[in-house]
Amino acid sequence: MKLNQLKKSTTKSKKRVGRGYGSGKGGHTSGRGAKGQKARGKVPLYFEGTAMRKSLIRRMPMIRGKLKFKSFKDKPIILNLKHLNLLPKNSTVDNKSLIKHGLLPKEAQNYPVKILGDGELKHALKVALPASKSAVKKIEKAGGKMVSVADKTLKKSPKKKSPKRAAKAKPSQKKPDKKKKVLKTKKKTTKKIAKKITKKTTKKK
Asked: Which CATH class is domain 73-151?
């Protein structure tokens, strides 16, 4: 047994910042350096050299415009053309077929997928997914084609006139209001009563 082989029997206490000269870290500055922002306290992550009112975190909820919710949208899963060579010839490329052949996980059935033009196609395929311009050229070069499934869903159907508006446009088809009928009958009765009163008064005279 040698001295350097002995196990440690004592443990030194940690240096306590700002606890006087006996703490092992000196007094006064106590390990924080001399003056300055970092000597006085911790600098927060959002600090940008300005007041908190103008910082990025405070301004984030105020961002407006078309791209306001862009960060919340699901980004498409990217697949390159070289991966589509695993699919059989003349097969349709969509989420189901990609999951079937193990190119996508089962969870990605309802996720958007985009095909990019890295690599080359060796056989013809029917692609029913959005693709980049370079990918479309290579697909058509290989004898395949783009099936515009997404375009059909995006096309706006012609606006049909509601039955209420159609009824307003044709006044002849309007049903007569019951309230108006009641008012007309009331007016007639009042006129008759007025005539009877005038006749009675004239006879008495």
From this structure: alpha beta
